């Protein structure tokens, strides 16, 4: 019998995966073993693909693109595959949620919710596949008609991170498929399972062989090789700003492939004195603790009006103490395990720096005692100054830094005092303040009196060093297309050489 955690079976032996090229499973020679962050049992074994495996995956995606087995279909047929995939995800919801928990450490209730979002991504992209279109220019004079065609970019390389292995995958894949592109995916090595499981679900839904290919292995080897591969027309990368920068170099040094980058963030949450403080405190607690703060849009800088700062921090600290941290298979758990040992060290390192640099610890600040897994209590620092490392650097953990302001302009300056521009939120019952801040703070995603709300209909992406391009929504499909301008002569063109 498999060991049980809260009624969910932990695997007695690790599940072994091959990698997926041209509609077929292949066996790896060298294998990577993943231990679950919450129970420390070996849960999966995945292949360490070679550069030759990658070449074969790119070649399969190229054949599938060039012979138009996918791009040549009517949008309605591509939509059909995406809708059947959404249905497949409903059937496989529990299986996918379980592997997300086992590899990533996130709470099971959260994993289930994320899969519902993934289903919505496939359904939204299905609509977009049917609606994708160019434009026409009927104003070029009676002799000329113009139009723009939207054509798929070609073979897309997709590199995804470990914090939302399935969600980020599904915020990309259906939109890439809707555009008519084919792809080669490289998931983060520690969380590869659900990207591989999706291969079978797509195939069952009727996706032609060669359109979705998966290679596994480390970022430094197979990821880097993918960024440099001249057979890739566009690369979509989600992860750290440092690796995002190396993708830019790799593109420049290879074939100038188009890039979509979703990178780091140091996202502000601005609370005015006239906000509903209970509501805003709940939002702040959620914004920093969701997914253990391992979230590119985590609101990690609290910027609160000085007149209510002490009261607000007291309410917030009380709420943060009540967050249920622990075994991710417990359906009551709100915050699970830290996904990797190195991320755990990084977070604890920042907490130590915060203390050493003189910030005041209001709550948390310690790892939680546990006989299985790595857990950190959601942490709040007050009295943070802009030069401290916890104020400037992306921690990617449940650590919130609080700053105080006196005027609206000061709040805006503090919010923009970062190299990033991924997400922001503002809390105020005064529409003028809320709208002014929304206009003047640099961020690709904005929330007013709410946080992390929204679905796949709206585009996501960053300003500044948080990235290039947009994912999801209609823009998220257009991102994977290129525009061709076409001019058509009506009648006989006037000749250049006189007869
Ligand atoms: P990385 O940027 O290293 O990893 C993200 C993805 O890129 C993974 O699939 C990884 O593969 C791959 N990768 C790593 N190195 C290369 C490379 N040279 N070329 C191509 N692909 C590569 O993030 P980390 O996992 O190291 O996390 C470090 C920090 O990055 C975090 O603390 C956080 O600040 C930030 N981050 C931000 C994310 C976001 O959503 N914006 C997501 C993840 C991290 P593999 O893991 O197999 O090595």
TrEMBL record:
Belongs to the aldehyde dehydrogenase family. Pfam families: Aldedh (PF00171). PANTHER family: ALDEHYDE DEHYDROGENASE-RELATED. The keyword Oxidoreductase applies. GO terms for molecular function: oxidoreductase activity, acting on the aldehyde or oxo group of donors, NAD or NADP as acceptor. The active site is at residue 262. It comes from Gluconacetobacter tumulisoli. Residues 26-486 form the Aldehyde dehydrogenase domain. Keywords: Oxidoreductase. This is Aldehyde dehydrogenase family protein. SUPFAM superfamilies: ALDH-like.
């Amino acid at each position: 019998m498999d060991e049980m955690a809260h009624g969910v079976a932990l695997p007695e032996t690790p599940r072994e995966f091959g990698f997926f090229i041209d509609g077929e499973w292949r066996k790896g020679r060298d294998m990577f073993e993943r231990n679950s962050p919450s129970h420390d049992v070996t849960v999966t074994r995945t292949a360490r693909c070679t550069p030759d495996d990658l070449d074969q995956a790119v070649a399969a995606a190229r054949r599938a693109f060039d012979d138009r087995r996918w791009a040549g279909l009517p949008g309605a047929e591509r939509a059909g595959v995406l809708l059947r995939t959404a249905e497949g995800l409903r059937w496989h919801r529990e299986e996918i949620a379980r592997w997300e928990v086992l590899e990533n450490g996130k709470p099971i209730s959260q994993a289930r919710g994320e899969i519902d979002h993934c289903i919505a991504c496939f359904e939204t992209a299905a609509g977009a596949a049917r609606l994708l279109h160019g434009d026409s220019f009927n104003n070029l004079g009676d002799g000329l008609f113009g139009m723009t065609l939207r054509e798929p970019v070609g073979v897309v390389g997709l590199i995804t991170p470990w914090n939302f292995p399935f969600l980020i995958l599904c915020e990309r894949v259906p939109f890439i498929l809707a555009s008519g592109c084919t792809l080669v995916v490289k998931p983060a090595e520690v969380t590869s399972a659900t990207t591989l499981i999706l291969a079978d679900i797509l195939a069952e839904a009727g996706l032609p062989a060669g359109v979705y290919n998966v290679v596994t292995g480390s970022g430094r080897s197979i990821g880097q090789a993918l960024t440099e591969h001249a057979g890739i027309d566009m690369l979509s990368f989600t992860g750290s700003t440092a690796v995002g920068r190396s993708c830019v170099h790799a593109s420049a040094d290879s074939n100038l492939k188009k890039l979509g980058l979703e990178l780091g963030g140091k996202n502000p949450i601005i609370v005015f004195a006239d906000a509903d403080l209970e509501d805003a405190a709940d939002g702040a607690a959620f914004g920093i603790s969701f997914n253990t703060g391992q979230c590119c849009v985590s609101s990690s800088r609290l910027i609160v009006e000085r007149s209510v700062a002490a009261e607000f921090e007291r309410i917030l600290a009380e709420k943060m103490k009540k967050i249920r941290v622990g075994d991710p298979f417990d359906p009551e758990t709100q915050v699970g395990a830290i996904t990797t040992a190195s991320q755990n060290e990084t977070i604890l390192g920042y907490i130590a720096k915060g203390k050493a640099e003189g910030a005041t610890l209001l709550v948390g600040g310690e790892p939680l005692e546990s006989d299985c897994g790595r857990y950190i209590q959601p942490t709040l620092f007050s009295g943070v100054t802009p030069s401290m490392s916890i104020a400037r650097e992306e921690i990617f953990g449940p650590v919130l830094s609080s700053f105080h302001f006196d005027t609206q302009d000061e709040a805006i300056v503090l919010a923009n005092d970062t190299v990033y521009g991924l997400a922001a939120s503002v809390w105020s019952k005064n529409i003028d303040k809320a709208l002014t801040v929304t206009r003047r703070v640099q961020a690709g995603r904005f929330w007013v009196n709410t946080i992390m709300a929204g679905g796949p209909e709206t585009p996501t992406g960053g300003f500044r060093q948080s990235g290039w391009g947009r994912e999801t929504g209609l823009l998220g499909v257009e991102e994977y297309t290129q525009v061709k301008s076409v001019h058509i002569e009506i009648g006989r063109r006037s000749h250049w050489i006189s007869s």
